[in-house]
Amino acid sequence: MTTTNQHKAYLQSAITKRYRNQFWVPFITLTSIVLVVILFFYLTKNSRIWYGTELLYPLLFLMKELFPLIITIVWVSGLSVILFGQWRRSASDVVALVDSIDMMQRGRQGDLITTPANLVELQPTMQAMFDSALMNRKAVEEAERRKSDLLLFLAHDLKTPLTSTIGYLNLLQDSRDIEQKKRQAYTKIALEKAMRLEAFVEQFFEIGRLNLQEISLNKVEFSLDVMLAQIAEEFFPLLEDREKTISIYTSGDIQVYGDAELLARVFNNVLHNAIVYSDAHSPIAIEASDQNGATLITISNRGETIPQEQLNTIFEKFFRLEEARGSATGGSGLGLAIAKEIVTQHGGSITAVSNYGQTSFTVCLPRR
Predict the structure, then answer these.
(1) What are phi and psi of 26, to 5 degrees?
(2) Going by DSSP bridges, is the β-strand pair 245-250/283-291 parallel, antiparallel, or unpaired?
(3) 83 in helix, strand or coil?
(4) How confident is the model at residue 351 (pLDDT cuts 50, 70, 90)?
(5) Rounded distance between C-alpha atoms, residue 61 and residue 142, angstroms
(6) Interacting residues of 87 by C-beta distance below 8 A, sequence separation 6+
(7) What confidence score (pLDDT) does residue 358 get?
(8) How far lies 223's CA from each of 84, 232, 253, 269, 286, in Å?
(9) Count of CB atoms situated within 10 Å of the CB of 105
(10) Which of 197, 187, 193, 267 is nearest to 225 (CA)?
(11) Closest CA to 266 of 304, 290, 297
């Protein structure tokens, strides 16, 4: 937006300067010529005594009587010609600029914006504005497309656990003579699906709350080493079930200034993804260090390489890898989006890199 405003300001300044010069240069030239003529006339008239028998006397006498009127007529006529020429150029330029603006509105990638020959120096700026507007238009179209995809994904993510819950509850209702063991199993599954649906809705509201910046950060200084160890310990049942391990590497006691509860949510979400989507029996590494006035926390795992085009959108709401969307392990697709919102509100950043089966998420938090 700032760049667009700068371009508009430049165009306004350049056009104003050009038309101002196109008026004042001829006007000053005309006025200078008139003044020279006046000076020449009076110098010539008073240079000597003129007699009635001389050939130039009648002309000089007439000029003396009508000179002010003649000079005024010449000056006004010249000014009128200048103004008329200025009007014609302006009208022609306005039409050409309207055509250029119309092209900017309906143009496509690679089109070159034409400008009036009188204002050819404005072409680079107008071309930059066109390219910027085209990018903004594409961004809006992409946002609309993603909004449509979001609604489809949301319907899918809500429907799956809801359908399962309804199905098992119908079994419990219709099968009056079902044995107690199966009844307990069906009840447990229905409850798990309902709880997953509740967690999804809670995450949905949480990301909306973060986007609206309704959250206030309760910043304190805490030990990052202790937090990471506690979070890793909480994942012990999931790690044991999948036969995976977590290793933590830190450069001493690292102190972080931030909202401990929210940042714990960040590391929890990223670590959960690393556990769920890594190769079976593979180790997961957490590395933390202070570098260049910032704290870097990297969580790495071995697994399928994530394509670059998916890495570019992995922090967007409801994004999940396609193979994960239909799986039982696939979450709501909000975990990484929530992590990004929290880190951003702390003035930091979160990035992902995936090469040769190694995927790493790096959280960068500014020092206090």
Answers:
(1) -65, -35
(2) parallel
(3) helix
(4) very high
(5) 82
(6) none
(7) 93
(8) 77, 15, 7, 19, 15
(9) 10
(10) 267
(11) 297
Map tokens 């006004």 to a residue.
Answer: 76
Cα–Cα dist 20/14, whole Å: 10
Q: What would the pLDDT profile of 163-221 be if each residue is shown by its tens digit?
A: 778 887 887 888 777 788 888 888 888 888 788 777 777 766 666 665 545 567 889 99
In angstroms, the CA 67 to CA 192 distance is 105
Q: Token pair for residue 289?
A: 């260090």
Helices 335-345, 260-277: crossing angle, 10 deg rounding: 150
Contact present, 35 and 75 (Cβ < 8 Å): no
Tokens of 130: 């066109």
Global model pTM greater than 0.70: no
Whether residue 114 has pLDDT greater than 90? no
Alpha-carbon distance values, 339 to 279, 301, 313, 357 (Å): 23, 18, 14, 23
The two structure tokens encoding residue 23: 């008026």
Q: 50 with 57: CB under 8 angstroms?
A: yes
Task: Give the contacts of 290 (CB within 8 A, at least 6 positions apart).
Answer: 251, 254, 296, 367
pLDDT band at 88 (very low <50, low <70, confident <90, very high): confident
Partners of 297 in the beta sheet? 288, 363
How much is the average pLDDT of 132-138?
75
Handedness of CA 322, 327, 332, 335 (dihedral sign): negative
Residue type, 169: L
Q: For Cα atoms 350, 351, 352, give the angle at the middle one, nearest 5 degrees.
A: 135
Q: What is the DSSP code (8-state) at residue 252?
A: S
